[in-house]
Amino acid sequence: MTALTDSEEEEERSDAEQRDEEQLVDRLSILLERIDGLHQGTESDKRESLNILLEQREEFGQNSPFLWRLIRAYCDVHDVSFTLEEKKTHAEAGKKVGEEAVSLNPTCAESHQW
């Protein structure tokens, strides 16, 4: 049995943290790819996209690519909604997320677009 030095322990933690971060990035990439596919789909697909993004918001809500897709999903569901109240709800929620996305990353063009 050997004793680990502080730097070896830090390196092990750093490697574990890096693996966790890589897994998070991989999960985000897979999620965004799926969301982009649903965006091209039917009305039902667009509603599913919004629901999936809302479920994942706690985990990825500080990520610009995630947030602008959430804004886009609100726009999509707004466009396919029938009632004025539902359209208003989605427009207001999308605007709020848009403001959050722009303040998080003012240089993200997609956040400004959606």
Question: How would you explain this protein's 3D organization?
Answer:
The protein is mainly alpha-helical. The chain has one domain (6-113). Helix content is 83%, strand content 0%. It contains 5 helices and no strands. The mean pLDDT is 91.
Briefly say what this structure is.
The chain is mainly alpha-helical and 114 residues long. Helices cover 83% and strands 0% of the residues.
Features of the shown structure:
114 residues; mainly alpha; 0% strand; transmembrane; transmembrane helix; coiled coil; microtubule binding; membrane
Secondary-structure-based class equals mainly alpha
Low-confidence stretches: none
Whole-number tally of structural domains: 1
List SSEs in N-to-C order.
HHHHH
Major sheet size, sense and barrel closure:
none
Distance between the termini: 58 Å
Which percent range describes the beta-strand content?
under 5%
Arithmetic mean pLDDT = 91
Specify the helix fraction band: over 70%
Please count the beta strands (DSSP E, at least 2 residues each). 0
**What does the overall shape look like?**
elongated
Radius of gyration: 19 Å
Number of continuous helical runs: 5
